[in-house]
Each structure stands twice: as structure tokens, then as C-alpha cells.
């Protein structure tokens, strides 16, 4: 948060709620995965939200991470040598990672905004994106994921069923239990809607 002073009142409450969503245990697991996926050359961040932000801020490690999930020759993010020092170039690098993550299959609602990482506004959103990326990599199981598969949950996959025409016809004759059963049902003795009950004294 380079040019921002302290926040007060409602802004402070909102920011503290966002910061409480950050998970330190998840941070350790994500760092382990990034190091396993990209190699020890990426180094390790200092512990805590600020350490992770500084480590990922220039977008180089994020670019290497998403590139490692693609086969050789089709890397979506260009990694500049040396790493960019100008702010807009770093933000552009992060934006390339976000585009590549979306192309990989991460849902738009799981993708953080560049400022969430760059200004440290919502590091929990950054964690969410990385978890979604890791889950997709485990689910795809295409040989590019490195690390412990138990670090991320597998996403549900489609289980398509093909029914024959005769099976579909048979299904039309069955009354599902959700609709109830009509065995022994009778409307004898019921009155029509809206008619008052007849009371005879």
C-alpha cells in the first residue's frame, strides 16, 4: 500500500475482515507447492502475508508456476530476463499470469485482481487463485503437476451417461418417490377448495 495512509472507520473494518480471511497454514502449503513445481531456484518468502506478497509481486514466480503446468513449447507467459523493475511492467507480468490461469481453467470468480497482490489489499484472494490452480492441476492429472496430490482437492468431473431409447421409455412409466405414491390414494370425502366446512347443529 504505497501511497495510502491508515484507514479509519468502515474502511478499517472492511480491511480487517479481508485480512482475517488470510490463512497462514495455507500459505505454507502453497509455498511448498510453488517450490516443488518451479524448483528450489525460486527461493522462499519470509513468513507472513507481507513476505508472500513481496515474493510474488513482480509476477515472475507466478509466471514460472503457470508455465510449469503446460507442456514444453506451449508456455503461455513470457518470463523476461532480468526481472522487471518498473511497476507497470511488474503489473503486466501479473496480468499475464491471471490470463494464463483463466485459460488453464480457473473460474473468473476465483481469480484475484492485480492490485490485490500488488498493493497487498487482499492476499486471501491470491491464495484462493493459487488453490484453484493447484486443484485444477491435480484434477487434470496430465503429468505436469509436481508435489503431493493431497495438498489440493480434486474438482468434480462430469460423469456422462448414455441411455438407450428403450431405457428412456421405461423411465417415463416409473413414478419417482419424490413425487409420492398414488397407491391406495383417494379423494373421497374431500371438499372443493374455497367451500366452507358444513356445520350442522
Quick structural overview:
The chain is mainly alpha-helical and 201 residues long. It contains eight helices and no strands.
Task: Explain this structure.
The termini are far apart. This protein is elongated. It has helices at about 10-20, 25-40, 50-55, 60-65, 85-105, 115-120, 125-140, 165-170. The protein has about 200 residues and is an all-alpha fold. About 45% of the residues lie in helices and about 0% in strands. It is built from eight helices and no strands.
Topology:
Layout lengths: L8 H12 L3 H15 L10 H8 L3 H8 L19 H18 L9 H5 L4 H18 L24 H8 L29
Helix pairs in contact: 2-7, 4-5
Given the structure, what is the number of helices? 8
Could you give the count of β-strands?
0
Element pattern in H and E: HHHHHHHH
* Rg over alpha carbons: 27 Å
List keywords for this structure.
201 residues, mainly alpha
Amino acid at each position: 500500500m504505497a501511497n495510502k495512509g491508515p484507514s479509519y472507520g468502515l474502511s478499517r473494518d472492511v480491511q480487517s475482515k479481508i485480512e482475517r480471511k488470510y490463512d497462514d497454514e495455507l500459505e505454507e502449503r502453497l509455498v511448498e507447492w510453488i517450490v516443488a513445481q518451479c524448483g528450489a531456484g525460486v527461493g522462499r518468502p519470509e513468513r507472513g502475508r507481507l513476505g508472500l506478497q513481496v515474493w510474488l509481486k513482480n509476477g515472475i514466480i507466478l509466471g514460472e508456476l503457470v508455465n510449469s503446468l503446460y507442456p514444453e513449447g506451449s508456455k503461455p507467459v513470457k518470463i523476461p530476463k532480468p526481472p522487471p523493475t518498473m511497476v507497470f511492467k511488474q503489473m503486466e507480468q501479473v496480468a499475464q499470469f491471471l490470463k494464463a490461469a483463466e485459460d488453464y481453467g480457473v473460474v473468473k470468480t476465483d481469480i484475484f485482481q492485480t492490485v490485490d497482490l500488488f498493493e497487498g489489499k487482499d492476499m486471501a484472494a491470491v491464495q484462493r487463485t493459487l488453490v484453484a490452480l493447484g486443484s485444477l492441476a491435480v484434477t487434470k492429472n496430465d503429468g505436469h503437476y509436481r508435489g503431493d496430490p493431497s495438498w489440493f482437492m480434486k474438482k468434480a468431473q462430469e460423469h456422462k451417461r448414455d441411455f438407450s431409447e428403450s431405457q428412456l421409455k421405461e423411465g417415463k412409466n416409473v413414478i419417482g418417490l419424490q413425487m409420492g405414491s398414488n397407491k391406495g390414494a383417494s379423494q373421497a370425502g374431500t371438499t372443493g377448495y374455497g367451500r366452507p366446512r358444513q356445520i350442522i347443529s
